[in-house]
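Weekly modeling sync, notes
Attendees: AB, CL, MP (scribe)

Item 1: holo prediction request
CL wants a bound-state model with zinc ion before deciding which constructs to order. AB pointed out that an apo prediction alone won't tell us much about the pocket. Agreed to run with the ligand included and paste results into these notes for async review.

Input as submitted:
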Amino acid sequence: MTSEPLTPDETYWDYCSRGELRLQHCAGCGSWLFPPGLRCNTCLSRDLHWEPVSGRAVVWSWLRMHRKYFTDPALTPPYLVTMVQLAEGPRMISSIQTTERDPRVGETLHLVFDDVEDANGHRLPRFAYAEANR
Ligand SMILES: [Zn+2]
């Protein structure tokens, strides 16, 4: 019995389930790809390799949600939906662990994996403020 190869999305979530954030890196042009895909967005190469990223990011934009739309524990209002720009370049929508204060655009964050899962059972990569004890 052979198993089906994982799709790019499945591979991404499989790494997340192990507490690793890996993105596809293009051997053709050096671009990082997110969201996951079959070809590089820049040069269309299929020579993509899953590489760990640094986990460093900055706040690109954010908003505070006050209404309950989802049953996920991570999305119990109020919560922060945050567009972060990874040090490697790609932007991703994520959230900041704590809601005790507003983020600042350009503020440094670091990756955290807590054990919060979304409705699909995916372990979510989230972010925390880089300064400790703020
Ligand atoms: Zn490329």
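Recorded for review: Residues 26, 28-29, 31, 40, 42-43, 45 surround zinc ion (CB under 6 Å).
Action items: CL to compare against the apo run; MP to circulate these notes.
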